[in-house]
Structures are given as C-alpha cells and as structure tokens.
Design a protein that fits this description.
Number of strands: 5
Largest sheet: 3 strands, antiparallel
Bound molecules: zinc ion
Number of domains: 2
Helix content: 40-55%
Strand content: 15-25%
Structural class: alpha+beta
Distance between the termini: 30 Å
Number of helices: 4
Order of helices and strands: EEHEEEHHH
Length: about 120
Amino acid sequence: MKLEISCKACQEKIRIKSNAISRPELAGIMGDRFSYRCDSCAIQKKYHVNEVVAAESNLVKVVGIVFGLSVIVVTTLFFWNKGYITNLGFILGGGIIFGSTVSSSSSTSHAFNKYRITSYDED
Ligand SMILES: [Zn+2]
C-alpha cells in the first residue's frame, strides 16, 4: 500500500514516506495537519491528513491477472490436447483474476480511505 496526496501547486501525486496502515496512525505520526514538500515542483504546502489517499500498488493486481490468464491458457491447452474443450480454465482463471482485483480493493487501502479523522481546529 502506498500513501499519496495531490500537490496543491502542480496536482502531481506526492508519495508520503510513511508505513502507517491507517489514517489515525498516520495522524499520530504526521499530525492532523502537516506540511509536505512536493517532489515535482518543490513547493511546500499544508495538507490535512484526510487528504491522504491510500492506493494499492498495481503489482498485486497485475500478478493476479497474469497468473489467472496463464491458468486459462494452460488448462484450455491441456484439455484441448485430450480431445475436448472445457470451461474449467475460464472458471478457474476468471476466479483468480476476479479474486485478485476484488481483494486489492477491499484491503487495507480501502479501509484507510473510508476512515476520516474528525478535526476540530477548522481553518
Ligand atoms: Zn507539486
């Protein structure tokens, strides 16, 4: 999981260098409001911890899709060589692809994004 904010100056995504796995944990480390310098434009702006967005690294999803596709191909070829066609490969491979995409959206990053810190010091 990676934590990002959109730069208020150039709109680039800035990677937050923290291993926090929840918003309260991140708030505990960085504070509810913190200043952060953009890697792209080097402008420092103030951000609220609620503006941080968690994203799953796409690697998990890509590996799942590639693995699922190879299961489809291998299973189909195997049964093809045996002289008949089956949907088994599509069911298995499709299940793996579905599982890897769904699990990555219902994981810690999803929980992180749902949670909002209640802050009393308004601007
Ligand atoms: Zn920037």
